[in-house]
Amino acid sequence: MSDKYQVLVVGGGPAGLAAGEAAARQGARTLILERQNEIGYPIHTSGGTWVKDMQALNIPAHLYHPVRNIFFLSPHREVNFQYTTDVCCVVDIRGLYQHLAARAVAAGAELRVRHTVEQVLTEQGRITGVTAKTHVSERINVQADVTIDASGFSRHIGVRTEMGQAFHRYGFGAEYDMYAPNYPQDELFLIMGSAYAPNGYAWAFPRGNGRVRLGVGVIHPDSENDARSYLDSVMRDIPQLATRFKGASPLEYHTGLFPSEGVVDNFTRDGLILAGDAGGHGSTLVGEGIRFAIYSGQMAGDVAADAIKRGDTSVGQLRTFDRRWRTRFGRDMDISYMINKRIAAYTDAQWDSGLDLLKRLTPMQAAQLLRGDYSASLVMGILARNPSLVASGGKRFLDLMLERINKPAAAGVE
Asked: Which of 24, 192, 216, 218 is the S-S candidate for 230 at Cβ 3.0 to 4.6 Å?
């Protein structure tokens, strides 16, 4: 069998669903293929993100749980920031993904679950679609003017079409989704140090109704430690968490992979766009991907539909996506990657020193830094509150951040 579409999206995660909605909303005949049996399962992410982005993306408030009390723990330090307004939040992963799927279908996209992409179709160097196995094990050809690879960490299409190799450096996370009746639902923890998260960090993310996601993430190959082996000790041996998790038990267990080597060199070629994790479009600062995946997918769907209207799906036209994405996110992503490579190798003493610096920031400066929303005013504000950095290596690092922030914008951006 053979089907013909204008836009084919591989992957029913946040990037793929947002891409499908955007393309269909512009009138493109759009198909989304998802290999799992249902949208939003299995869960591979903790769901930490920011209220302002959920509002900007028109995500209903019932799909995210706001948190106003953030704790940072290192081996010998504790820093607490309290907010009077909703800043960060934890999303209902399955609910959010299915909401995005419903929006895509309402816009006119077709969605098929349990469809596994097997091969890429090409013609004279142009990507023209894929072969896939259906839910009844029937093999079909799906042809498309533009294919969007939103297959996440595996980046099925990108790897098979020489758009970069499989990710070598990555975060591996393991997580319990707990019912924790004694855990305050307005407290979020980020935990650093070799005892609980070597070359990574641990977290406790409340998501409402007594539920808390407790996880550990470790960067490979920076470390060969297995994140799964630390989960129980994080809950049991950290005093601040032990009391909060008294009487708690896990109801779900999740694992996930997150690319941690920066964005790929190119996002497009004739007939193909890489979006979301497939293009390395998440922030490596704390392994945050959901909001960036949705933004990336929306851009990819818009560019694909516009290219079809113009009758030009060559790399020259699709490269509009590269320029738009790099203009909006490129500098912040580069800085986040620079910071990630630096802090991933921190010793316990360096984490203690890092929290000594962090506690001198205002709550909004801390949130802006954690969000990866870098600006010259943020760097100057950090220096103003930490004058000792002027005579230390930290000043040199902040100067490098300023250099990246002030780098001229990419040329040729529409």
From this structure: 216
Count of C-beta atoms within a 10 Å radius of residue 167: 20
pLDDT in the model for residue 265 = 94
- Give the residue from 230, 259, 288 where a domain finishes: 259
CA–CA separation, 379 vs 377, rounded Å?
Answer: 6
Q: How far apart are CA 273 and CA 152, in angstroms?
A: 13
DSSP 337: H
Question: Which residue is it, tokens 């393309």?
Answer: 23
Which pLDDT belongs to residue 288? 95
Any domain includes 97: yes
Kindly state whether residue 64 falls inside one of the protein's structural domains: no
Sign of the CA dihedral 206, 204, 175, 33?
A: positive
Output the pLDDT for position 383: 81
Look at residue 48 in the predicted model and tell me its pLDDT: 97
Q: Which amino acid is at 105?
A: V
Domain membership of residue 51 (yes or no) is: no
In order along the chain (414 residues), what is the average pLDDT of each group of 10 residues?
A: 90 98 98 98 96 98 98 97 97 98 98 97 97 96 98 95 93 98 98 95 98 97 94 96 97 97 95 98 95 98 98 98 96 92 93 92 94 89 77 66 72 38
Are 177 and 247 in the same domain? Answer: yes
Q: What is the pLDDT of residue 275?
A: 98
The CA distance from 262 to 243, in Å, is 38
The predicted pLDDT at position 393 comes to 58
Q: 158 and 232 in one domain? A: no
pLDDT, residue 153, reads: 96
